[in-house]
Amino acid sequence: MKKFLRTSSLAALCLFAHSVHAQCVTTNLNWDYLDFNDPSFTQNTLAICQTQKFAFGTQALTITNNYTSANILGENTSSTSEAGTYGTGADVQFMGNGVITVTFQNAVTNTKFSVYDVDYSQVVTVTALNGATPVNVNMAKVSGSILTIANNGLTNPSATASANAAATSSTDGAINVDIINAITSFTITVTATGVKTTGPAGDREDGSFWISDIQACSVGSFPVNDRLVSQPWTGMPSYVLAVNNNKVYYVDPVTGKARFLFRDAGNNNINSVAYDPVNKFVYYTYSLTGSAANDKILRRYDYNTDTMGIVMNDVSVLGFPLYDNGVESGAASFYNNSLYLGIEGNGTNSTGGRESKIYKIDFNGSHFPIAASQVYGIDGTGHDWGDFGVTNGTLYDFDADAGNENLYVVPLISRATTIAVSPAAPKQTSIDWQENLFNIGNTGSSPSTGFIATYTSAGVQGTQTIITVNGVAETGSWGDGAEAFKPKADFGDAPASFDPDPTSPALHEKDTSLRLGAAESIEWNKTASTNADADTDEDGLPFVRILTSAGNYYTDLDVYNNSGANATVCAWIDFNGNGVFETSEGVSQTVTSAAATQRIQLLWPAVVTTLTDNSNTFIRIRITSATNNMTTANPTGYFYNGEVEDYYVVVNSIPLDVKLTQFTVSKINEQKVNIFWTVDDEERGTDYEIQRSTNGTTWQTIDQQIAEDDIGLVTYHFSDLSPVRPVSHYRLKYTDIRNKIHYSRVQKVQFSSVHSFKIYPNPVIDKATLHIESLIQDNGYLQITDMQGKIVHEEKAVILIGHNTFSLPTHSLKAGVYNVRLSFSKEMFNNKLFVVKN
Question: Can you give the pTM of this predicted structure?
Answer without folding.
Answer: 0.79
